[in-house]
Amino acid sequence: MKKHIIANIKMNQTPEESKFYLASIISKASALVDKRLTICLPYTSLNLGKMMLSGTDITLGAQNIAEEEEGLLTGEISGRMLKGCGVKRVIVGHSERRSRFKESGQAINKKIKIALKNGLQVILCVGESLVEKNTLKTVASLTAQIDECLKGLYENELENIIIAYEPVWAIGSGKTASVKDIEYGVKAIRKAVENNFSEKAGKEIEVVYGGSLNGKNIASIYNAEGLNGVLVGGACLDAQAFLRMISKC
Ligand code: PGA
Predict the structure, then answer these.
(1) Which of 14, 21, 187, 188 has its CB surrounded by the most CB atoms within 10 Å?
(2) What is the pLDDT of residues 6-59, one digit of tens each?
(3) CB-CB contact of 89 with 54 (8 Å)
(4) Residue 129 has what DSSP assignment?
(5) Sign of CA pseudo-dihedral 221, 227, 229, 233
């Protein structure tokens, strides 16, 4: 199976800027043949992404989804609305949303169910804080997040879920986890999935790593044991630099 490269544009790019960005990436599509690239655009660029990415092998992603189907939620975007914009995958539970917007595990669990119900694949982010890492609570933290977020799901739904291991202390901080740290975290995630579902589920769930990836560290991390790819934030914003980075994988 080809590995994932997921680009999280975060709160960047006007539609015009997304247009130039996507055009640069699409023009180098041959560099991507052995990878599965997903670009998670801001909401305001999704429709444009739908048009530009149709007919390419690049998957259109979004960065968040409302925890309810429709109704009195001013400013929120529903699963149906994302689907209508051509979105295939959606990031859920990013640590920036957990901390800045106080998203709970319970809310993330609802978002996952709504996304799946609307035929969207989920990129579920989990990761330990620096305090948890320093007090040797990484496994406990990851296990609790997996237990809470995947509660009530059927095992066959896991084929539409990618788990992104994103240590909170590594996101946007310039501090990358070592390959050893990553393999340790990924193992804990797989074990938690196994405990909730089955040994097969723990083995087969796709897990990617995200957190301060750059042109220097991507190659070794991309090849870390048990990893199905990477999620890139800040370093994906410059299309040419991002393409150079991908070429090292
Ligand atoms: P970063 O972001 O690569 O800038 O650390 C990763 C993420 O937020 O998912």
Answers:
(1) 21
(2) 999 999 999 999 999 999 999 998 778 899 999 999 999 999 999 999 999 999
(3) no
(4) -
(5) negative
